[in-house]
Amino acid sequence: MRILLCEDDDQIAQSIQLALEKSGFTVQVERDGEAALFRGESETFDAVILDLGLPQMDGLTVLKRWRRANLSMPVLILTARGQWEERVEGIEAGADDYVVKPFHIMEIVARLRALIRRAGGHATARIPFGPYELDTRTQQVTEEGMPLDLSPQEYKLVSYLLHNRGRVVSQLEITEHLYRQDYERDSNAVEVLVARVRKRLTPDVIKTRRGFGYMLGEGY
Length: 220
What we know:
The chain contains eight helices and eleven strands. By secondary structure, it is of the alpha/beta class. It folds into two domains: 2-119, Rossmann fold (3-Layer(aba) Sandwich), CATH 3.40.50.2300; 126-216, Winged helix-like DNA-binding domain superfamily/Winged helix DNA-binding domain (Arc Repressor Mutant, subunit A, Orthogonal Bundle), CATH 1.10.10. Helix 1 packs across helix 5 (105-119), helix 3 packs parallel to helix 4 and helix 6 (152-163) crosses helix 8.
């Protein structure tokens, strides 16, 4: 899952980024509102963490412009303690949730996971597909209750396809959402990853649409 983190405080941004990456997310950080606006409009993200107090352009203006452009990615806003007016205005402008500073980092992770689940139509952290089940809290896939030994990237691929169930996702989209931009990878990295997952689960879990990309197979 690819996250856009918009936060100008270096210490806060680094703490959130580290926690998200440890939890299996790929993170793009922007430090000011104008850069955040451009990044959100020009690239796709599974969710956004948006500080309202950004320089150059405030977070609320960024959010309003995203929503006017019909960008529907879930947005979690960060606000200062006591600024209830900001929180109300943020929700009315199209934010999906908010966290008040100071906060516990793992609260950010938990709320972000919940937003992404709801955006994908899932009410709980445990998502069944065929004889398997994916748990977003433990980052574990089980088969009839037995844990499967998936690598972090294998888990991310299954999770991304599951959260986009019913839709074909291209190799480029998978690459952008599973790997950091500075990560060195082979040109056939996605094909190799798909082949490994098919061996770990069953071959029909991931269906290939030649010339288009991949999706979960029927019945999953």
